[in-house]
Amino acid sequence: MSWQEIINSPFFWRALTIAMIIGFANGCLSCHVVLRKSSLVVGAYAHGTLPGIATAVLLGGVTMINVFVGAAASALLIGLGSVWLVRHSRVDHHSALALMWTAGAAIGLFIIDRTGATQELEGWMFGYILTISDQDLWTSFIVSSLTLIIVVVLQRPLLLMHFEPDVAASVGVPVKFLHYLLVTLFVLALVSSLQAVGAILATATLVLPALTMTQVADSPRKVFWGGGLIGGGVAGLAIVLSHLISVRPGALIVVLLALVFGMAVVFGPKYGILHRLRHGAHRHC
User: Fold this and answer.
1) CB-based contact 199:124 (threshold 8 Å)
2) Residue 77 belongs to what domain range?
3) Which candidate, 31, 76, 57, places its Cα nearest to that of 191?
4) Within a domain: 200
5) For residue 34, is it within any domain?
6) Which residue has the higher pLDDT, 42 or 281?
7) pTM of the model
8) Residue 87 CB neighbours (<10 A)
9) Which CATH number does the domain housing residue 35 bear?
């Protein structure tokens, strides 16, 4: 596809806008995923959207609202259900998540066989950002904006909860409520990412941006905003490149995020491998 065709394509501009919005919001939120060491937990939530998506398709057809509600309800059931199970049994958190999302995935497969809509569901599992509508764009914009506003307003109590949960509770921070709120925000961010990268790859947008920033910065504030810039910038670049080289945009977003992370690990100015090797060599001299 030529540059002229790309610039004149309304699909390109919608895809670019939604990718950068979701990339920025998820990149900022990834700070809290990484600080809570919840990367695998978020992965379980992402896979937990499958039964909800399949149920939504079975009951109401493949529409943005149906799939959004179904995926969010399913992931929230798994996320909040696992927290409840941990608090009321002897099961640890990771085991509870493994139990609930694998059971949910199995139920989802049964439902998919009933719907016969395997092809339509593929887009939601792996992303199909180039076919989004204006309504889809506004839905994702509202969800991403709401998520970002909440984490910005609650930044201080959230950081206190991450680093000093006992102190946070002693000074009146509602730790349990914030924990449930974060689970809800993680799920909403994942669901808003379904059209961009799909349920299978959505976890990367909520992990890799902040993980990259931790290789070059110590301040949570820098990790938060830097993660947003990395997420939004990489997502926008991936949309442009996907039009030029004709590859799946969702997969390219994740590949580029992984490449940026790899570069930070090797070339990071403070914690990079090359920096540490040079520092070690100077010491020996």
Assistant:
1) yes
2) 3-280
3) 76
4) yes
5) yes
6) 42
7) 0.85
8) 11
9) 1.10.3470.10
Mean pLDDT of 187-216: 87
Q: What is the C-alpha separation between 235 and 142, in angstroms, rounded?
A: 18
Task: Using alpha carbons only, give the angle 55, 142, 60 rounded to the nearest 5 degrees.
Answer: 20
**Number of independent structural domains in the chain:** 1
- Determine the Cα–Cα distance for residues 210 and 186; give it in Å rounded to an integer: 14
Q: How many residues does the chain have?
A: 285
Query: What six digits make up the tokens of 46?
Result: 């992402």
| Greater model confidence, 275 or 226 | 226
Distance between CA atoms of residues 82 and 240, nearest Å:
39
User: Is 105 inside a domain boundary?
Assistant: yes
Question: Looking at 105-176, which runs of residues are DSSP E strands?
Answer: none
In angstroms, what CA-CA distances link 202 with 209, 220, 229?
12, 23, 17
pLDDT at 10 over 80: no
* Per-residue model confidence as pLDDT tens digits over 127-154: 777 777 777 788 888 888 999 999 999 9
Q: In terms of pLDDT, which residue wins out, 120 or 18?
A: 18
For helices 10-35 and 155-163, what crossing angle results, to 10°? 40
- In 3-state terms, what secondary structure has residue 217? coil
Helix axis angle, 49-60 to 118-126, nearest 10°: 140
* Helix or strand run (H / E) with residue 230: helix 220-245
Q: Is residue 285 part of a domain?
A: no
Q: How confident is the model at residue 176 (pLDDT cuts 50, 70, 90)?
A: confident
Say what percent of the chain tops pLDDT 90: 30
